[in-house]
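Notebook entry, cofactor series.
This is the third protein in the set we're modelling with a bound small molecule. For this one the ligand is S-adenosylmethionine. I'm keeping the input format identical across the series so the outputs can be compared line by line later. Sequence and SMILES below, as received.
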Amino acid sequence: MGLKVYEGLPASGKTKAIISEMDRRRSFGDRVMLVLSNEHEELTRRPNVREGGMMGCRDSTKKFPIDRVIGTAEACELLAEQVAGTLIAFDEAQYFNPKIVPAWLDASERGVDILVGTPSQMQLQALNGAQYDLKKLEVMCSCQKRNATRVMYSKDLTYPAHLCDRCYHARMKDEEKKLLKLVQESEPFPGELHTYQPFFGIDMYGWKLVRNDCPARFDIILDAVARSDSVQEKLSDPVKQPAFIDLGCCSGFFSHGMAEQGFRSHGVDVAEHFILWANQVAFSKGQAIDYKCQDLLDFLRTSDKTYDVVSTFATVQWVMDQRGYEAGIECFQRIFEKTSSICIVEMGYTTEDIYRMKIKDRPSEIDRQWVMNLMESFGKFSQIEFHPAGEGGIWRDIFVGFKKKPMARGRVDTILKNVSTSFLQSKKIQVRKLIKKIESLVRRKSGPEKTADFDLFPLTGMLPVSKGDGYWDDRWVGPRFVAKLKPVQEFHKFRLEGWRPEDFPSASVSISLEGQEICSKEVEGGFFVIEAQAQFPSRDELSLEILTSYSTSPTNDSRDLSFVIKSLDFL
Ligand SMILES: C[S@@+](CC[C@H](N)C(=O)[O-])C[C@H]1O[C@@H](n2cnc3c(N)ncnc32)[C@H](O)[C@@H]1O
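Returned structure with ligand:
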């Protein structure tokens, strides 16, 4: 028989075929062994995956005892010891390193029979050109017209529906519609197209979102991940997967986003409806995300797992409000301990209106210095980076703690590198803000860099052909923002998304193209959207002007600021 490899969609009958072949060979009196990998949590977390445990399949009459649960190196040694006539099966083989492939080929050349279920793409590449028998198991789509090419899960990740491409897209649209209808009918804003977070990868056009800054916050996580060598090493390993957890995960924007980046993703939130929605999205997209509906402190006290990347956005202040200040401090201590590489923290401050009357037992105000002191006093972060509210459109300050110094530094950190006097250390936040301000002023003065700044501008449908006046690279705009733009596609509509601090008084924002006002709108504090019809011009270049009636210079910032621009689209 030699080497036989079974490929096919989940639940297409691969394991059943392997068990049937093993049963048949055992009935002839042959030596038969079933081997699974111990290198991935997806297998090791299953209680049956142990020596002597039974491996089953969807046909409940078919089971086979597991002989060994081992790593790739041990599996290669085991293969080398086998004699001709033995059958060894490797089910869920994708959880072995591709280095196992030469050992399969070598053993099969010596007359050992080998069954492989669900190989990884890298294993198949390594098999390229070799002699082996590939069994591709096909399943019909539920429409009975075409073979299935995809699976979709509904309640759990065990029994999928098999679908062709056409049926999959139609079903996915349907699932998304059902989910959004459910969200519309539920808390926190029943009856409205309004919810807290967007869903990752789902078009929520027309929805009002409390946290419109999720993509900007996600960028901060990705930037940190890109600079951590320990996380990058795991991401590039064929079997190891770095783990991510979002604590207070709401409806799963960050957990889902990180799963799509290749992380083994988790989320914890106390609100049942958020977890229900998050699970629904994950199942329909076939993402194995582990969501838990649990109180944060209870979870932290009972879980002994560690995670490569941990985030907690605007949640611990709620634990403090519900269970007291010390409960929040305990949360943070445990969160920091659980972090192997990167910890991302956003905290609601007691200086904000919404929390001013909460956390009554606090010994001092909870503000940015409080968070920085807490992270520093933990003593195990070798670097803590600070992203001030407003940067890239984020609502609140974000702190990123690295257990091991990242490979590259942010611009501000490069400058701070050699600053170590205790005075400056204690004033780190102010120093960072000051440096950011100087950087921004320097860029304002130098012409060529300004164009590069403007390239960072979140613009679609047009290209910038001049520097923008009244615009800074942290996406703040002043009371008069002017730029020359060049259309790159036909457009009929204009859409501006922006953000202003909640406590800003209302202001009018008016937008003109070529000196002609195309719309004007009164905006409140928080996120706002301005949309208008815009006529496609007959000319190559257009001047855009945005005038805002209110602007202010915050403490320690000499700029005159009106709002943060999130996106500017000509559609
Ligand atoms: C202000 S929202 C922030 C949501 C999300 N982290 C974000 O920033 O987009 C607070 C979140 O914490 C959750 N939460 C509140 N109390 C909690 C607790 N005791 N344990 C776990 N989650 C909690 C809420 O359900 C909600 O999803």
